[in-house]
Amino acid sequence: MSSIDVCFSPELLHLYDLKGKAVVAVDILRATSTMVTAFANGAADIIPVMQLDECLQYATQGCLTAAERDGVKAEGFDLGNSPFAYMNGHIKGRTIAITTTNGTRAIRMSEAAEEIIVGAFLNLQAVADHLIALGLDVIVVCAGWKGKFNLEDTLFAGALAAKLQDKFTFENDATLASLYLYQAAKADLVTFLRQSSHVQRLENLETNKDIAFCMKHDVYNTLPVWKKDRLVDLHAAPTLA
Q: Which positions make up the signal peptide (predicted)?
């Protein structure tokens, strides 16, 4: 039976052997939620990068550029990190280069894995179904906040563990703790997260609408996965599987 484990921060990835495993990279507030939304609204592919200057260079290749630092859209870029900015139709068929404080880092630091999947509450069931079909051991890599633990990504890990618990073993106590936390919070995730550090940061930036949206379950069936040097939606491009 395959196993599921949870890495609470990319800073802890050195403790994990990613070879032959599936990584679910998650940054609920808001990078991976935004990526899932972008694909649902027709983005062709997404190139996650770690640095602002590297991201900006993709504009010369005809890409849209998106950047966030400390919760705020970076100056000089087409898009920020709010999922609502990707819903007006202008990204359809476009390649988006994106860099964020935490989420893109979690993706790029997981490149040794057999498969990298971008997860959010917005595509939770699609992620779970794919992992069951894939049959690999799973590591949920929480983006956290600047290398530290955060609550919202851990809640996603618990929600995924709840979906997989009958078919996957729990590798260690991190998965069990995530599951118990999600069970305690699932009746009202937004209220549960209200005192969390990142929600407080975002509320100070007047992003309450983003927070509520990112907590919704199974809004989309999109499945972003890493292919060569970028993310594609596996459900939109089955020939790339």
A: none
For residue 95, being part of any structural domain is answered with yes
How many domains is the chain built from? 1
Residue that the structure tokens 């917005």 belong to: 122
User: pLDDT by residue for the chain (241 residues), tens digit each?
Assistant: 999 999 999 999 999 999 999 999 999 999 999 999 999 999 999 999 999 999 999 999 999 999 999 888 999 999 999 999 999 999 999 999 999 989 999 999 999 999 999 999 999 999 999 999 999 999 999 999 888 899 999 999 999 999 999 999 998 999 999 999 999 999 999 999 988 876 677 666 667 889 999 999 999 999 999 999 999 999 984 443 3
Range of the domain at 12: 3-227
Q: Is residue 170 part of a domain?
A: yes
> Which of helix, strand or coil describes residue 201?
helix
Q: Is the dihedral of CA 81, 85, 86, 91 positive or negative?
A: negative
Asked if the structure places residue 236 within a domain, the reply is no
192, part of any domain? yes
Its pTM stands at: 0.94
